[in-house]
Structure formats: C-alpha cells, structure tokens
Automatic annotation (TrEMBL):
Keywords: ATP-binding, Nucleotide-binding. It comes from Aristaeella hokkaidonensis. This is ABC transporter ATP-binding protein.
Amino acid sequence: MRKQFAWLWKNMDAPFRRRHVIALCVCAFTCLLLLVNPALSQRLIDDVIVAGNPKPLLSILAVMLVVKLGREGLRYMMVIFLEKDSQNVVFNLRRRLFSKMQYNDMAFFDTHRTGDLMTRMSADLDWCRHFLSYIDYRIIDAVCTFLFATIYLLLVNWKLTLLLIIITPILLLITKFFSRHVRPRFVFMREKLSEMNTAAQENIAGNRVVKAFAREEYEKERFEQKNQAFMDSHLRINKLWLTFFPIIELLVNAIQLVTVFVGGLFIIRGELTPGELAIFTGLSWAVSNPMRELGNLINDLQRFSTSAAKVMELYYGTPSIVDAPDAVAHERMQGKIEFDHVSFRFDTKPILTDVSFSVQPGQTVAVMGPTGSGKTTLIHLLARFYDVSEGAIQVDDCDVKQWKLSELRGGIGTATQDVFLFSDTVEGNIAFGDQSLTQEDVMDFARRADAAEFAEKLPEGYDTIIGERGVGLSGGQRQRIALARAMAVRPGILIMDDTTSAVDSETEQYIQDQLRHLPYECTKFIIAQRISSMRDADLILVLQDGKITERGTHSELLAKRGYYWQTYCLQYGIPMDEEQSTASGSNSAVGAPAAGMGV
Ligand SMILES: Nc1ncnc2c1ncn2[C@@H]1O[C@H](COP(=O)(O)OP(=O)(O)OP(=O)(O)O)[C@@H](O)[C@H]1O
C-alpha cells in the first residue's frame, strides 16, 4: 500500500502536492476543533447552568457558533483541494498510461483484452482518484478524531476513558482478520468486472457478426452470466462484511452504554461533574465512530489497492522492443530488404523457418501461400512488431534492430489485411500518417487507390465522417482508403497485405497500374492470393508452413509446376493437364493464357 501511495504521490504535480499536504493538515486541525464545543458544553453546564451564572452564556454560545462555522468552512476548502489534487493525478496517470499503450509491443496487445485495458483506464483509475479525494482524508480523519478525543478524555477522566477504549485491541484484531480475507475477494471481483467489460466491448465491436448470425439471445445470455458473476463476487464481499459488521456495531454501541452507565456511577461517587459527563457523551462518538469506520475504510483501501496494482502493472510495464542505445539515424528509407536465415517462434510454436531472400530498392516482392503459412508474420518482423528468434533482417543494409523504431516504421507504409479506419473524415483517415498533406495530395492518393470516385460521392465528400472501422463503407472501399493512407506517407517500403482482395478485377488492374507510377520510389511488398496481384513482381515467394518452398518470377514459377502453378491453373480455370502441355513450350507461352484473359 505504501508503494501505491508513493506512486500516486510521484504523479502529483508539485503545487498540488503542497496543497494536498495543506488539505490533510486542515483535516487534522478540524478534528482538533471537534473538541472545542464539548469543552464549552462542559463550561456551559458546570459554570452557567449548575452555578446559576448567566454571564458567560452569550460568549460561550458565540464561540461555539464561530468554531462550528469555521470548521465547516475549512472542511469545504479541504474537499475542493483534495478533489483538484486527485484530478491532477488522474490526468497525469491517464496521459502516461495512454502514451505507454502507444509504445507497447504487439505481444502486449496479443495477451491483453481490450475490455481489461479499458477497465484499467476507467474504473481502476477512478479508484486512484477516490483514494486521493476521499480515502486518505477519511483515514486521517478517523485516526486524528480517535487520538485527539482519547487524549482529551484521558485528561478529563482517565479511568472512564480506559473503559471506553478497552475494546480497541479487539477491534483491531477483527479488522486485521477481515482485511486478510477480503483482499482475495476484491481481486476476484476486479477480474469479474474486467470479464464483464470485455464481453460488453466485444459485443459492441462485433455487433454486425452477432446480428449476422442472429446470436442476440446467446450474447444476452453470455453477458448475463458475466453480469451475474460480477454481482455474485460483490455479494461475496458483502457477505463477509455482514459477518464482521454486527460485531463492530455491538462493540461500538457498548461504548455508548458504558459511558452513560459508568459515567453516572462516577457522578454519584463524586469523581465526575455533570459537565464532564457531557464531554464524554458528546465525544463518545468520536471514539466509537472511527472504529465503526474501520471496516468501510478497509473495504475501500483493498478495493483501491487491487485497482492500483492493475494500473501500476500497465504503468511500469516496459516494451521489449525499443530503440537500441546505439540505434543509427537514417534519412529516407531506400527500401532494400534482406531476410537472412530468419526463423520465428510464438512461444515455442515455430512460425517461420530459415527464411532468406533479398529485394533491391524499387523492386516488387510478392508472397503467396496457404492461410496461416506465415505471410503476415514476415511483415510483422520487417516492421519489428516482433523480433526474430534467429537470423537477421536488414533494411538498407542495416539490421532492423539498429534502426530507430520511429524511422523504421515511419519508412514503411502498410495497408493491412484487417482494415481499421478511425472515426474521422475520409481526408483525416488518408492523411493519418502525414498530417502535413495538402488537400490536393489527399485527393491525388485517393485517385491512385481508386478511392476518389466514391469519396467524392459521399454526402460531404472528403469531409464525410466515416464510422469506427469504416462503418458505412463497403469492404472494397475501406481497403482503398487504407491503401491511399499507406501510399500517402510516401514510404520507402509499401506493404499491401491482401489489400485488394475485396475489389473487383478491373479496379485491381487500375491499382496495379497506379502502383507502377507512384510519385516516389519505393519497394513494394505484396501479400496476396490472386495471381493477378503478383504476376509482374520481380520476385515471388511461395511460403508453406513457414518455409519458402518456391521462389522466382511468374514464368519461372509456372515452369516449376509447383504450388504457384497449381494456384494459377485453379484461378484461371485451366485444367492442369492442358496447362502442362501448353507450358511445355516456351515461358512466354506459359504467361499467354493469363494475359489473354485480361487479369
Ligand atoms: N499472436 C499470435 N500468437 C500465436 N500465434 C500466432 C499469433 N499470430 C499469428 N499466429 C500464428 O502464426 C501463424 C502464421 O500467421 P500469419 O498471420 O502470419 O499467417 P498468414 O500466412 O498471413 O495467414 P493468412 O493468409 O490467413 O492471413 C498462424 O499459424 C497463426 O496461428
């Protein structure tokens, strides 16, 4: 807990820290002020009522009123200070956490559910705010009220005071027991909250799939289970609390009884004046209330501690893929790529094995292969989303591990398989990677990606806001905006991962032509299933089970009669026997049917 407080403190700006200390001192001072009115009540009873002397009456009442008003005013100021300080910390934390998430490894996002991360950024952070704006002052309040009242009562009558506080050690023991048992329940509850949020988030993000499969009822049921589990975890805590709470209440109420009963006896024996008994009855709550509060505070503290631990995990997590200390600065990326005996494993599962190839700047390399063969992983390694397990990847004759990450990734434009567009205008989405693009540039790249025609027809043209994930656009339209976005950063390496799979052949042909005439030099890295997307590539790689099984140009691969040739025959409806006899002539004859089919 101390660590967590130190962490929050570290994230509070200096002026707010000063104010926070002042606010907590004010809190302690107002606890001291609590003693004034019971002390004045004693004088009121002993010196005014019992003595029959009305002279000091007005002055006593005036001081009581001033103290009461002053105390309320100070508490008001304290609450405002605490609220502002806690907001300052949460603001700083949110900023830092968001930035942390930006730089986290791909592996981090592979293993953390979105719903869980959202819970850390919202509910868990709110518990950090709650600690600074409420829990910490309530602790000081309880401790100071108890201590000041006890000391004062000891001075008035130590025997009666000892009777009042005799139950304190028992209470502390019960509290310790409660605290030990409630913590794992809070950890469990936090997990259930995260699962519930994840279910809600996935349902919202995947609502189209839910509808398409008419799985609303199933989803409702699934969420119901998570909701129920979260509620049950809450109830388990409440159950524990309910076994603990009556014991505390009983002990605390005993304090009040002892005060009146033993206090009365002391008056009869002349050991206490009626005014002094008024102090005891007036302050017995100040001794008993903090004890009563203990359970609540422990609940809150454990809840805070569970949430803070989750936020701290994110806060202190360090990405494993970072700039090397001796990273080399590069001007513009030229686009020379070399994979040198690259192998890659996810945990122990081999994904790529001994992959070697090289591409010169400006060339086009295409990769094809069955699904799951490791094509996307190749580009993930190139952009250093993951580090190779063995071998090395060089870009412009420099190991990618020696590149500054921002320059490496900034030099690669990627149109990914799974298109994600932001809730922004079409123009904003295309200019995402380069905010300095002019409107003319945006329109030019949209034209090259064949996105101009439909973009202009949108209700507000390029200023039309498209929804999250490009809602409102067709799959092919989204792919074309994603391609324009990748082209627009003028990368040294342009990666197209299944980018034209959802567009028709004519559009694909148009895009292919445009790719040949980009207004800058770049290496093109194409991942595709269609032969038409790759037939003009300088190098075509066939990847099977993470290994390169075929390599060469279109005609060389057709001549090999392997996977590429089979795919070719399947896609162009050529019986394999017939193709074999056609291809037994020259290489140009092999290319002829496809060219003739206009694909
Ligand atoms: N984050 C991950 N953790 C573990 N395994 C993964 C992860 N991402 C991918 N894989 C596995 O790596 C293998 C290669 O995946 P990859 O996405 O590179 O294939 P692909 O050839 O691009 O497939 P597709 O054509 O379907 O896109 C697959 O078996 C996949 O299950």
